[in-house]
Amino acid sequence: MTGTDSTGASDNEERWTPPIGPVDPEHPECAAVIAEVWTLLDGECTVETRDKLRQHLEECPTCLRHYGIEERVKNLIATKCSGERAPEGLRERLRIQISRTTIIRGG
């Protein structure tokens, strides 16, 4: 028997829901890998972490697909924003704000 739920979707329709926890049940480390994707893209992870992330990406098509999306977003941002500099006044205000935040957190 088929019916509809509160969203109007029938039982036979597959609804997309965001992943909670691991992305791929066969790879329980997926959530941690996805959280570290930007450090790999930005070259900010250790050699050990980089190697672990790359190994996982080679074995997990779901995470590799996510990595590819993030890589395209990063490249798009770099292409669209290259060469632009924030006005000096804005840059100075940001430096001051970052300094205050660092002092408060480090204090």
Automatic annotation (TrEMBL):
Task: List, as start-end ranges, the regions of compositional bias called Polar residues.
Answer: 1-10
Domain (Putative zinc-finger) ranges: 30-63
Q: Which superkingdom is the protein from? A: Bacteria
InterPro entries recorded: Anit_sigma_mycothiol_RsrA (IPR024020), Znf_put (IPR027383)
Q: State what protein this is by name.
A: Anti-sigma factor RshA
Q: Which Pfam families match?
A: zf-HC2
Gene name linked to the record: rshA
Q: What is the lineage of its organism?
A: Bacteria, Bacillati, Actinomycetota, Actinomycetes, Mycobacteriales
- Region Disordered, as annotated, extends over 1-27
